[in-house]
Amino acid sequence: MAHPILRPRRLREKSLLRKLVRETRLSVDDLIYPMFAVHGRGVREAIPSMPGQARLSVDELVREAKDVAGMGIPGVILFGLPREKDPRGSEAYAEDGIVQQAVRAVKDVVPDLLVITDVCLCQYTSHGHCGVVEGGTVRNDATLELLSRVALSHVEAGADMVAPSDMMDGRVAAMREALDESGYTESPIMAYSAKYASSFYGPFRDAADSTPQFGDRRSYQMDPANGTEAMREIALDLDEGADIVMVKPALPYLDIISRAKSEFGVPLAAYSVSGEYAMIRAAGRLGWLDEERAMLEALTAIRRAGADIVITYFARDAARVLERGGLTG
Ligand code: PBG
Questions:
Q1: Distance 201 CA to ligand 1 centre (A)
Q2: Catalytic residue among 85, 107, 195, 261
Q3: Using an 8 Å Cβ cutoff, are 309 and 269 in contact?
Q4: Domains and CATH numbers, the chain
């Protein structure tokens, strides 16, 4: 054919036309920013494998949370590093634990920022696993009681939403029951439903000092080769009362995000994890790619796949670019 009639390029020539037919929009409204709380005052410890991220004492964290809210980012998800670790991770559910302190302080000073908390034991246990260890294995049912206590203590401190990331069976139901029994029927649960045993958590484990001291997490986190099983995990969490479900990591699992959105049609979050952040940052620093464009492309792809909410360490960088109208074109 000498002259094609159908020419998709017609709509690509001009920036304004491209904008008009763009199918996916990334907005600051979609983003959640993860933060790490540590004990002390005036502490700001850079995390080497996550350039631009730091562990913050509560006073510093509140300052930064104010900044985050000022940028229009709707929420943060908090992680904590305890003063001491023990086999049952007791600071995770202590009334004056680091996350509980951080939640109270942020809600006090920045009440309009949504404060979500990660509910898990691995940062708090001496063995680094996400549950109670007995006889060398992670015990599911014994862990549920502790996780419920963690969730309840976060909500009591004022958390707007709890996000269990442990991957124990039945944790959403256990937490829902614990919250309801204490009158917190209106507190939502965002479940890390399809959480894979991923090497992309490496930098986070440096940041949160949560590397397992023996073995790995493959007896509870999902096999990266499985997709149908992710749908089953999501279905179970929804049955147990999850309000928002999550796929994690995001970029290597866009197919899972897409399936989850089309099969369930419920509010869906995707966690673009530490390793995804580190890859783009590192390549950007080496001058191997344009960091800003790669960041926006990755975040847009996660939205295009079907995520409503994107949890990302790039939230502040992305908010800055979006504020000035996004990248040209
Ligand atoms: C805790 C938890 C992890 C992450 C979020 N919650 C680590 C893990 O499961 O080992 C990873 C987040 C990231 O890599 O950014 N269970």
A1: 6
A2: 195
A3: yes
A4: 11-323 (3.20.20.70)
